[in-house]
Amino acid sequence: MKTREIKILYITGNGHSGSTLLDIVLGSAPGFFSAGEVSSVTRPTIHEEYCSCGKQIGECPFWKEVWQLWKDRSTLSGQEYRTLRLRYERSITSFITLKNRFWPGRKFLGYCEATRILFEAIQEVSGAEVIIDSSKSPTRIAVLRRFSELSVIHLIRNFTGVLNSAKSSSKKDIKAGIEEDNPARSTIKTWASWFLTHLQCEIFCIGIKSNKLRYREYLNDPEKLEKLDPAFAGILDRAPFTSEHMLAGNKIRLKKSLKVDKDLGFKYTRLNHKNLLIAKITERLFWFWN
Length: 290
Description:
- By secondary structure, the protein is an alpha/beta fold.
- The chain is built from eleven helices and five strands.
- Strands 2-3-1-4-5 form a five-stranded parallel sheet, with helices on both faces.
- It is globular and about 55 Å long.
- It starts with 6 loop residues before the first strand and ends in a 5-residue tail after the last helix.
């Protein structure tokens, strides 16, 4: 099943870590295509949501062609694919996915094949050599590695920054790029999600080409990106950035001109003294994920 024809650069890590920004920046390199959070294709409202080109995804010529190719070639219906994604690509089902990583069952293989056909369609329509997927879920690595030449970026942001971002809230506004309500999260839930996600990243990255990339470092040290791939040399100097047909992710994907603010995300105005203390202790104890 595995082929060297499809090349994927996958960004994994915790939410609120800047994966959409990184996707857009790396997607500006020749031969790379920013696909965004590809796993969102199963979201019921996906066709009413907006592509970074400004059109609704159901009306975007790029995604309409991808969808048609996928529909014509896949043996799974949209509902079947959605059900299997929930089975294999959620944190709470990570043990099921890990088991299938070594002893793949028929349904898991069928899901991998349908995902391969989706990426094949994206590659065919985009003409890109490498597809960037910033879906973030660590369990998705087990799926992508079965059919592609896969490279993974384990994106890390300091816990203080993650917690500060998690304390923000936003209301659903599809036209603005916010696909669902995002209430502020509690400190405990944010910590638990942060810890479990990074632990799963470590586990699912075993045996494949992967690199840890810290949010703070790549903003201030462009050579960190060049070490990932020579194609990224001097990439931060190419600002402002745009993404042609990015599917889902942070609302910044809809900006027509995006500049990288090296100070973005380092002001923790939403955190009280207790929050800051917990964050500081976390960063001391888990320095390797900060």
